[in-house]
TrEMBL record:
This is COMM domain-containing protein 6. The lineage of its organism: Eukaryota, Metazoa, Chordata, Craniata, Vertebrata. GO terms for molecular function: NF-kappaB binding. Scaffold protein in the commander complex that is essential for endosomal recycling of transmembrane cargos; the commander complex is composed of the CCC subcomplex and the retriever subcomplex. May modulate activity of cullin-RING E3 ubiquitin ligase (CRL) complexes. Down-regulates activation of NF-kappa-B. Inhibits TNF-induced NFKB1 activation. PROSITE patterns: COMM (PS51269). Residues 120-187 form the COMM domain. Belongs to the COMM domain-containing protein 6 family. It comes from Machaerirhynchus nigripectus.
Amino acid sequence: AADKIRLIPQDFFAELCEQIIQHLNHKIPGVNTAELCQRIQTSGVEINIGDLAKIANILSFLFSTAARNNLSTEEFVTTLGSAGSTLPKHAVQVIRHVWNEQGKAIAVSEDARTTATVGQFVDMKWKLGVAMSSDSCRSLKYPYVTVTLTVADPSGQVTDKSFEMTIPQFKNFFRQFKEMASVLETV
């Protein structure tokens, strides 16, 4: 992971660290590694989304462990160095700065974080389509709904989940959402 961290420019690494801190503080649902990876690649750095996601998970683990142990900035940086860490100098500087600026807020909210083991809903998109024909059938003309859910898993990794439904399935889906809305209004 240290080799991949070396590839990431300091400003993008700082943005990744800040997003992780915000996620740990429950200010954002997760870290959008896909969008960040695309921007890093556009800047000319060759890194894939899997490697960036691993780095995000490692940093999330480091920050949450430091928060759980209530480490000061100096204790955190010393621990990073004494653990035989081969983190590049710019990464340690960014971690020091981000932890110094925003790390204490995690310590307060970390107890609530340990109870959250379910992903978090971020967004939903849908579109209506009609299948006109296929290899085996010349005239289908059957409508369907494609739904894409954006979800942040407990580690903060943001992913899209897509599925298709027939119109009757979509009507049932919609009915269930209406039921949830009416229950929420009574709370």
